[in-house]
Amino acid sequence: MSRSLFGHWSEIESQVQEANAVWLGTDFDGTLTEHQPEPHLVSLDDSVRQTLDSLARRSSYSVAVVTGRSLQNIMQLVELDSIGYAGDHGYEIHTTHWQSQESLDEEAAAQLQYMNGVIISLIAYHTALQVDFKKYTMTMNFRHSSSEQRADSLRILTDAIVHCPRLKLRHLARGIEILPQHPTNKGTAALLLKERSVGRDALGVFIGDDLTDEDAFLALPDGITIHVGERETAARYRVDSPSQVADFLARLAKMPDRRQALETGKSVS
Length: 269
Ligand SMILES: [Mg+2]
Known about the structure:
With 269 residues, the chain is of the alpha/beta class. The chain is 38% helix and 21% strand. The longest helix is centred in the middle third of the chain and has 20 residues, at 106-125.
């Protein structure tokens, strides 16, 4: 059972203050911003953008947004060149120093192409179905679909995915997703970003509200993992809302920069 983050602030504060370096990863929708009925209407508050930027510019911090949105889309929404990004659940990564893209073998790529065709036929008559076609995954949102349309879409996709053994279908809070069986997820992305930016021994902090964020919580068992919301989670702490996430980030930014203080010979305590 996760515990209230702000109710245990002294232990958070000491864990951050004792860390030589911090990797801070965060989901975007429902975590840095409130969910919106239309994903393209979401925008990031300037105050949150500035806080992320000021943390990223500390020598002891590395900051990344880890999201299901495409890499191109999330970079346009956040508009910071000081942080790293993992788009499409980690299939595409861009940081200030390196980039990576998962390469799919021909068989998986052909199966994604096949499912792409199935979904295009589906949205021709289930017009309320919203689909985000990304390079490695396809996310379908049922928020405007009737329950009959939802059930029919699920049946068609479940029948089709049987022909695609290299792909899988994953249920999300607001829809479903078609993705490769390849074990890339927010957890593998978090570990890769953390190890390549600040190292294995750094403190990992991860914040998220989605079921897909659970992979990142599990990948950072000694870290400060924070779930936004109420449900059962592997995260150690929880907050209620994106505004509490903003509050948490602001509190982190107010803590002394340990490495800078050491470099300038000042005491941090
Ligand atoms: Mg989210």
